[in-house]
Amino acid sequence: xxxxxxxxxxxxxxxxxxxxxxxxxxxxxxxxxxxxxxxxxxxxxxxxxxxxxxxxxxxxxxxxxxxxxxxxxxxxxxxxxxxxxxxxxxxxxxxxxxxxxxxxxxxxxxxxxxxxxxxxxxxxxxxxxxxxxxxxxxxxxxxxxxxxxxxxxxxxxxxxxxxxxxxxxxxxxxxxxxxxxxxxxxxxxxxxxxxxxxxxxxxxxxxxxxxxxxxxxxxxxxxxxxxxxxxxx
Length: 233
Prior knowledge:
Elements: H1 3-27, E1 49-55, H2 58-65, E2 71-79, H3 88-91, E3 99-106, H4 113-124, E4 132-133, E5 136-137, E6 143-147, H5 150-165, E7 176-179, E8 183-185, H6 193-196, H7 201-217
Parallel strand pairs: 6-7
Antiparallel strand pairs: 1-3, 1-6, 2-3, 2-8, 4-5
Helix pairs in contact: 1-7, 2-4, 2-7
């Protein structure tokens, strides 16, 4: 091996270490916090309900909610734009209006919509980051709640007001609220990405800590075996 090759390898290794360090610094912005239960919550008699939430890369958000008791399905996808542009490469242009989102199907008799929002604001993402989340930048990584009913809108607005009044964060909550016009499942390789790729540096730095925080902070809402979109191998 020649010296120029050694120098090149050293430079690449140094750049990688810088990237890792930056990722860890950015991840600190997602430090979890125990939040109070919503003072206003939904009381549904339905057997099943759907919530659509956006909070950065859908890999981690999906991974968190797959471990929540009462949740029966979590699908990664796109919301906020049209069906024709609901494709990963097109959404990545940041011109479609879409946000990477998750569609959560849950039993409201086991976990309420308000409790899902509690996890969303506490460990799934940082609601004070505008059009970004950790190392990911752009409006497709924005914080947004796509409510499906007037009752969900009421609960979400009340909880944001409650957290704001309590000064739960050092910066303003920038989470947007918008009625859901359509949810479009992401490509198959994105589903259960965290579960299938735990060795990924991105997953280890940005997403696995969120699941650990869920387990530590909300043990009564945590379940060890995640619900999955894809079949287990």
